[in-house]
Design a protein that fits this description.
Elements: H1 3-6, E1 23-31, H2 38-45, H3 50-59, H4 72-77, H5 79-91, E2 92-100, E3 107-111, E4 114-115
Organism: Arabidopsis thaliana
Family: Belongs to the TRM112 family.
GO molecular function: protein heterodimerization activity
Length: about 120
C-alpha cells in the first residue's frame, strides 16, 4: 500500500467521528521505483492531508519531509523537494503491517500490500 492510498483511507466503523488518519504499524516496508512525474505530484499535492502524510512516512521509516506543508512557490521551483514527495507518495510500499483507527484502536491488516478495510458485522 502506498502512502498516497493511506492518505485517502479512513475508519468507517459505525459511530466513529475521527477515523482519520489511520495510524500505520509497519511490519515490512519496501521501495519500488516509479517514474518521476513532477506535474502529477504538483496536481496531487492539493489533495493530500500533509500532517497525515508526514506521520505515515515517518512510521514507515522515511523522515525526509518537513513538518510544515510547503507553499506553492516550492512546488513550482524545488525539484529535489518534489522528488522527496514523489518518493514518499509513490515509492514507499507497506507490504505487511496494520492500519489502526485513531478513535477505536481497531486494526485493519495489510497483507501483500493490500489493506483489508472490511468491517465486522457489529461495526456496520
Amino acid at each position: 500500500m502506498r502512502l498516497i492510498t493511506h492518505n485517502m483511507l479512513s475508519c468507517n466503523i459505525k459511530g466513529v467521528t475521527s477515523g482519520f488518519p489511520l495510524r500505520i504499524e509497519a511490519g515490512n516496508v519496501i521501495e519500488k521505483e516509479v517514474d518521476f512525474n513532477p506535474d502529477f505530484i504538483r496536481h496531487m499535492f492539493a489533495k493530500i492531508e500533509w500532517k497525515a502524510l508526514v506521520e505515515g512516512a515517518r512510521s514507515m521509516g522515511y523522515a525526509e519531509l518537513p513538518e510544515e506543508s510547503p507553499d506553492a512557490a516550492v512546488l513550482k521551483s524545488d525539484e529535489p523537494f518534489l522528488k522527496k514527495l514523489h518518493h514518499a507518495l509513490l515509492e514507499l510500499h507497506l507490504e505487511e503491517g496494520a492500519l489502526v483507527c485513531p478513535e477505536t484502536g481497531r486494526k485493519f491488516p495489510v497483507n501483500k500490500g493490500i489493506p483489508n478495510m472490511l468491517l465486522h458485522e457489529d461495526e456496520v
